Each structure stands twice: as C-alpha cells, then as structure tokens.
C-alpha cells in the first residue's frame, strides 16, 4: 500500500502536514533519522506510518506508560495491530502481545526504556523480527536535560545489537542536545536530520506582569469556561490552592504534582484524558506524557525555568491544530528565584552560564517590545516577520527611552557597592528617608532623590525590566543583592541606549488574550452536539474522547456538515476503520436519520470505488428482469458488486471469473461499460 493510501485509509488524512512526508520517506527507506519537530507537529505519524509500510516489527521506545497506552489504543481504533509491554499491563494484555509477536501480526511494539535493562528483553527483540527502532522524546538521552532518563543510554546498544535503522524524534533540542543524541543514540554517525520549523501558528502567545496573580488566572479561566486547560505552577502548594480556587468559582479542576501518591496521579491523568473541560493545576511533573490533542489553553502562574521549558509546556495546547491560548505571568520574584535555582544547582560553571542564557532568552520574550512569536522563533534560529496575532501584535507595547532611568538605577547600585536589593535602591532614588537609608548615610549619595520623575510602582517596573534584560542580576552570596552585569556597562558608559515598556502593571489587570471561538456562532450548537455524542461513545468504550475523534475533526464536521458516508470520509481524521465504527453515529447528529447502507458499500465510502459501486447498482436495477423486463429477477450480492467495483483493467473473462457465467450473461457488458467509463 502506498504512503498516501496508508495516510488516507488508516489515519484519515488527505495530505501530510508540512515537513512530514520527507521524514516518512527517509524512515521507510531505512535511513537513520533525527527529526526535531514542534510539539503537536505530528511526530507520531512519522514512525507509525513507516511501521505499516515496512516489513517486520517496529519497536517504539517511549518514556511514559500513559502515553504508550493511548497511542496503542488510537492505533487499534484505526485498525492497526499494536501493543505495549509496560508495568501497567494486565497478564492478559501481555499474553496478547506475545501471541501477536509469535503469530507475526504485530506491527508496532511500544516499551519503556527501563525494560531494556533486562537481558531477556534484548533476546526477545532479537527473535521478534524487529526491523526499525523509533525513539520518542529523544532529548531524554541528554544528561543535562531536565527529562534525563538513564535507560535511554541503552538504546544505542540496542541499535548495534539488532543492526537495524533508528529514527529519533524530539520537540526541543538545542545544538548541544542534538550532539548528545547523535553521540549516544547513533554512535556519533550523523543521521539524516530534519529540523522542522518551530512555529505553532494556532497558539496565541501572551505574557502579563503579576498583579493579583490568582485573580489573573481565575479571570483567564473564566473567559474559557468549559475548555480543557493546564495551569503550570512553580510549587506543589500552589497547585492545590489554585485548583481549590478554580473549583470554588465553578470550574472542574484538580491538582497534580510529584508529591502525590502514584495512584492519585494516575486518576488525574485518566480524568484529564477522558473528561472534556477539566482544568489541571500542575507542576512540570505533569508533562511529557500528556498527548491530549484538544487542550485549549495553557497558563503559567509562575515563570517557567527556560525558553525551552516554556516552548515545550505551551506546546501541549492545540495539538489538534485548532486555536489555543496561552498566558504567562511573571514578576521580579520569579526572576530572582530562577536565577537562584541555576546558581545553587550542581551543574559545572559552563552549564550554569548556558542556563542563565536560556533564562535570559525567556526574560527577553517576557519583556519584548515587538511580536512575541518573532522573538521566540529567532531564538530557535528562524527569521519570521511579525505574526499579527500575539498580544503585542494586537496591542503594541508603549515604549519610552529608559536610558536615563537605567543609568540612575545602575549608579544607585554601584554607589552602594552592590549590596542591596531593588526595594532599598528605589527608596534611595525616590529620596525616602527610611531608617535603613539614614543609618547607612545613603541620603548623602549623589543619586539620593534623583528619581522623583517616577513613582514607586514605576521604579519597580523599571527594575524588573532591567533584570529581564539581564542588566542587574541577584547575587546569592549577597542574599539576593542586585549586581551589575557586563550587558549594562555600555549603557552606563553612554555607548548604548535602551527602550523600556511603560509601566505594564495596568495592562496586567485584564483577563489576558481575548477568547477565540473554535467555530462560528452558527456552527457552535452543532459542535456541542457532536461533542456530546463523542462523550457518550467514549464513556461506552471507557476511552479518552479524542480516541474517537479529536476536536479538529469535529470542528470540520460542524463546518462542512457531511450528509453521506462518502462526504464524511473526506473529513480530516476520519479513516476507514473509524468511518465504519462511528460514521453513522455522527451523521445522525448532523443530518438526522440516515439511510441504511450495506456494510460492503460502507467499506468503500469516500473512495472512487464507492461511486463505481453505486453505478453498478443502478445498472443492475435496470437489468434486474433482463433487457426487456420480462426475464426472471436476478441480482448480484453486495460483496460480489464490491469486488467488481474494485477491479482494474478487467475484460469479460476476468469479470466472469468474479461473478460467474449466469450473472455475466445478464450484466457483463453493462458492468464492463461502467468499469471502462471510470
């Protein structure tokens, strides 16, 4: 079967997403492959489709059980023989996997990297006829990454042992991590590398300065009521208090963090996968395994740890391609905390410097004066124009020349020998005669009282932006006192100027970006009805709703309103197996009662052969009693007509072999005319 046939018949898509086809072709051809693709860019398809096109079994190394189970379930729904060997299996599930392996029917075998530690696993994989290794979340091989999994280091040995090609996939990998992947997984041999664009245009980007942060999150969620969302929090305690606050204001919300019992975490994961409109307040422990395609928003109640972490976390929204929203809150305390985290870590000095650089990139994004998406993508080496639909494109930042104010602040820090935090420095600039200032004689400094053009709140915003631009950095050895960095020297010496945003505190009081409707007002009631049908079918099957169809597929149904199975087959995400299982259920929601269609005709829905079958039926009906209407009634069975509809280049002899002499005598010439006219 060709790749386009597999794409359409199994996965239900008319075309590849940008960048997918080249990767699929390379993997099918048996090339060692490294693909860096954005979260939600369709990574899974890039190894699932080649697994079906190649002989033998593809073993997929994936880091989380929940993710593996969902992918296996989704593949089975699409009619693909897939299985997983995980610690969460029942004995029956494990037996079924072994039987399918022995029978040679299994195409994809999922397993966690920890399973490779067992010698028995290596022997089993040798015997199983593995022809390809696919590695999901390949950045887990990086020892300096926050997702490092020691057992990922065994994958290179597995590749050498089996002597088969390896395809590695990840959403975020800077040059350093890519080198580690090539070294550890590919033995230093450069694979065919595909670096897909990092843009996720359906995700709206927005940042806001913290100002009553709990209310900011509550307002943001209230404007998106009924939509699935994640609120990332910097502490375990905050996940619990925010989830409680959301529940008290009428949302269905729960919390998730690494300190919970394993079973409680599993319950939250299961609820989030299966329920529409649930909000999870979580630490980053709620991460890589979340493959729910219809998360409509992600909010950060605290600043993420780096630009890569930010990109990966917001990337969990809108994986179905439909519009999604983000809001990231930040303040000076976040900046101090993140700096301290890096400085107190155990990494060597060069790694700490790189981590400060990553944090600087994120702070630059937070304090950006122009298009957010442009800032983000430039970090990843791309050169886009303004996107037109992030918060700064929609409402451009008001800026002012902050050079004089920044020099005043730097001077105050230097004249107090960089031993104080922002609060004391602001008091000096404002000329506040506090006890602390008078005791230290700071009221006699030349900078005392020079900053009265700005009030306290405005100075707080200036200092926050200076920290964001990495002009001042908290020093842990001086208990968080602000010290000037090298970046500030050109400004202090008059060799450079700097623009700052006007105080952004007022802007923070809004509820964040405006809500984007998934469909037009006219189509919204139908979308709700389709979701209700999906929820019912998912509950019946005890499966996540998106395993039936994801949001994007339902949105297309609501907008295009297919009236027949043939039309339904052309909706994105509706493959042959899902059309057979669920097509009529959803057609009934759209069109009311539907005409009964023979199962053989249903199998041909959406294909050219379906239209040929219909014409054969018409011809047969007209000749049912012979050319003159006087003969004994006669008709071919539905399965016989389906076979005829799928014939290519048939002549009378071939046709007679399929339908028999008796039927060929009555219908042969007319059937051949239909087939030739197709």
TrEMBL record:
GO CC annotation, single: bacterial nucleoid
InterPro entries assigned to the protein according to its UniProt record, in alphabetical order: DEAD/DEAH_box_helicase_dom, DNA_helicase_ATP-dep_RecQ, DNA_helicase_ATP-dep_RecQ_bac, Helicase_ATP-bd, Helicase_C-like, HRDC-like_sf, HRDC_dom, HRDC_dom_sf
Domain (HRDC): residue spans on this chain: 520-600
Gene Ontology MF, one: 3'-5' DNA helicase activity
Pfam families documented for this protein: DEAD, Helicase_C, HRDC, RecQ_Zn_bind, RQC
Keywords: ATP-binding, DNA damage, DNA recombination, DNA repair, DNA-binding, Helicase, Hydrolase, Isomerase, Metal-binding, Nucleotide-binding, Zinc
PROSITE patterns: HELICASE_ATP_BIND_1, HELICASE_CTER, HRDC, RHODANESE_3
Needed co-factor(s): Mg(2+); Zn(2+)
Group of enzyme by EC: isomerase
Rhodanese domain ranges (all copies): 216-269
Known EC number: 5.6.2.4
Catalytic activity line of the entry: Couples ATP hydrolysis with the unwinding of duplex DNA by translocating in the 3'-5' direction
Superkingdom per UniProt: Bacteria
Ranges where the Helicase ATP-binding domain occurs: 24-191
GO BP terms: DNA recombination; DNA repair; DNA replication; SOS response
Helicase C-terminal domain location: 213-363
Matching PANTHER family: ATP-DEPENDENT DNA HELICASE Q1 (PTHR13710:SF105), DNA HELICASE RECQ FAMILY MEMBER (PTHR13710)
Family statement: Belongs to the helicase family. RecQ subfamily.
Protein name, as recorded: DNA helicase RecQ
Organism: Yoonia maricola
């Amino acid at each position: 079967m060709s790749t386009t046939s597999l794409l359409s018949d199994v996965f239900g898509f008319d075309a590849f997403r940008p960048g997918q086809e080249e990767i699929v072709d390379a993997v099918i051809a048996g090339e060692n492959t490294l693909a860096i693709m954005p979260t939600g860019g369709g990574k899974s398809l890039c190894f699932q489709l080649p697994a079906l096109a190649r002989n033998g079994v593809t073993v997929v190394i994936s880091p989380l059980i929940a993710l593996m189970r969902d992918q296996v379930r989704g593949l089975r729904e699409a009619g693909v023989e897939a299985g997983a060997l995980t610690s969460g299996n029942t004995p029956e599930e494990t037996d079924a996997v072994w039987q399918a392996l022995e029978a040679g029917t299994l195409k994809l075998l999922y397993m966690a990297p920890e399973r490779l530690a067992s010698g028995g696993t290596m022997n089993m994989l040798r015997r199983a006829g593995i022809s390809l290794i696919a590695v999901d979340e390949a950045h887990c091989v990086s020892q300096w990454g926050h997702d490092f999994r020691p057992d990922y280091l065994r994958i290179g040995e597995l590749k050498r042992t089996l002597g088969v090609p390896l395809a590695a996939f990840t959403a975020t990998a800077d040059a350093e991590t890519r080198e580690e992947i090539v070294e550890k997984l590919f033995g230093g041999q450069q694979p065919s590398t595909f670096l897909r664009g990092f843009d996720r245009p359906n995700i709206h980007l927005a940042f806001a300065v913290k100002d009553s942060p709990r209310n900011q999150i509550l307002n943001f969620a209230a404007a998106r009521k009924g939509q699935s969302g994640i609120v990332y929090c910097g502490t375990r305690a905050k996940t619990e208090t925010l989830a409680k606050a959301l529940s008290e204001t009428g949302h269905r919300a729960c919390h998730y963090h690494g300190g919970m019992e394993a079973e409680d975490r599993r319950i939250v994961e299961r609820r989030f996968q299966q329920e529409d409109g649930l909000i999870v307040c979580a630490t980053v422990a709620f991460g890589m395994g979340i493959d729910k395609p219809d998360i409509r928003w992600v909010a950060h109640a605290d600043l993420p740890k780096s630009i890569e972490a930010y990109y990966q976390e917001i990337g969990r929204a809108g994986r179905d391609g439909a519009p999604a929203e983000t809001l990231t809150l930040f303040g000076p305390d976040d900046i101090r905390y993140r700096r301290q985290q890096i400085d107190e870590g155990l990494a060597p000095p060069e790694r700490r410097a790189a981590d400060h650089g990553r944090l600087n990139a994120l702070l630059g994004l937070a304090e950006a004066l122009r298009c957010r998406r442009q800032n983000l993508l430039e970090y990843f080496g791309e050169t886009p124009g303004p996107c037109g639909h992030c918060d700064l494109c929609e409402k451009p930042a008001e800026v002012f020349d902050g050079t004089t104010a920044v020099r005043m602040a730097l001077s105050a820090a230097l004249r107090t020998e960089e031993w104080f935090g922002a609060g004391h420095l602001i008091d000096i600039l404002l000329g506040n005669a506090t006890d602390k200032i008078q005791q230290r004689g700071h009221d006699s400094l030349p900078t005392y009282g020079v900053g009265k053009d700005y009030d306290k709140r405005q100075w707080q915003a200036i200092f926050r932006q200076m920290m964001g631009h990495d002009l001042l950095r908290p020093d842990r050895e001086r208990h968080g006192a602000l010290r000037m960095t090298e970046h500030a020297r050109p400004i202090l010496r008059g060799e450079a100027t700097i623009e700052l945003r006007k105080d952004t505190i007022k802007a923070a009081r809004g509820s964040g970006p405006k809500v984007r409707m998934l469909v037009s007002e006219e189509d919204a009631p139908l979308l709700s009805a389709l979701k209700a049908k999906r929820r019912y079918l998912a509950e019946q099957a005890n499966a996540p709703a998106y395993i039936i169809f994801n949001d994007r597929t339902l949105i297309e149904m609501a907008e295009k309103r297919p009236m027949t199975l043939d039309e339904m087959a052309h909706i994105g995400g509706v493959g042959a197996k899902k059309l057979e299982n669920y097509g009529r259920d959803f057609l009934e929601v759209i069109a009311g009662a539907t005409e009964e269609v023979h199962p053989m005709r249903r199998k041909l829905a959406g294909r050219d052969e379906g239209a040929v079958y219909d014409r054969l039926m018409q011809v047969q009906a007209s000749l049912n009693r012979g050319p003159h209407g006087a003969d004994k009634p006669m008709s071919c069975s539905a399965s016989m007509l389906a076979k005829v509809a799928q014939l290519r280049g048939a002549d009378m002899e071939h046709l007679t072999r399929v339908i028999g002499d008796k039927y060929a005598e009555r219908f042969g010439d007319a059937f051949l005319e239909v087939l030739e006219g197709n």
